[in-house]
Design goal:
With about 160 residues, the chain is an alpha+beta fold. The protein is built from 4 helices and 10 strands, in the order βαβββαβββαββαβ. The chain is globular, with a radius of gyration of 15 Å.
Length: about 160
């Protein structure tokens, strides 16, 4: 039996505990080292205000694009294992986190269940995803929406490069 062809994948990464940019770089390294995906584009790291639960520190956020041979649920299990292995502990929704690795899209897969929604259901409402994703995927169209256009149509003045 031959292995499946590679599928385009997008990841959103965030951290607001410890060495935030370092946590993102470590997660990206593990994605490649473990064969989860072969990355070919990684955004700069952005400083973004907390979303949802406001009483916490700023986040570092980035996006990455690449190719994977994993199925949607294999990919989900792999990124959850990376989060756990890096030390992420369960917390309240939108609370502080050492690392968060979201699957933004996986080829043209569409899923809508409690475990996994593809494309990510909040992708177009979150500047901390749209800005870095538009940086590395200026021609990317998801669910019929151009990512760069969606990012340009909204003012994200509170999302700045990490310095």
């Amino acid at each position: 039996m031959s292995e499946p062809p590679p599928t385009r994948v997008g990841f959103g990464l965030g951290s607001n505990i410890g060495d935030k940019p370092g946590n993102i770089r470590a997660a990206l390294r593990l994605i490649e080292e473990r064969g989860v995906a072969q990355l070919d584009a990684v955004s700069q790291i952005y400083r973004t205000p907390p979303w949802g639960l406001k009483e916490q520190g700023d986040f570092a956020n980035a996006c990455a694009l690449g190719e994977t041979r994993l199925s949607p649920y294999e990919l989900l299990a792999a990124v959850k294992k990376i989060e756990a292995d890096m030390g992420r502990e369960p917390t309240r929704r939108w609370g502080p986190r050492l690392i968060d690795v979201d699957i933004l899209f996986l080829g043209d897969h569409t899923l809508d269940d409690p475990e996994l929604t593809l494309p990510h259901k909040e992708l177009f409402s979150r500047g901390f995803v749209l800005v870095p994703l538009a940086e590395i995927g200026p021609d990317l169209v998801l669910d019929g929406v151009a990512v760069a256009q969606a990012a340009a149509e909204r003012a994200f003045d509170d999302i700045v490069l990490w310095r």
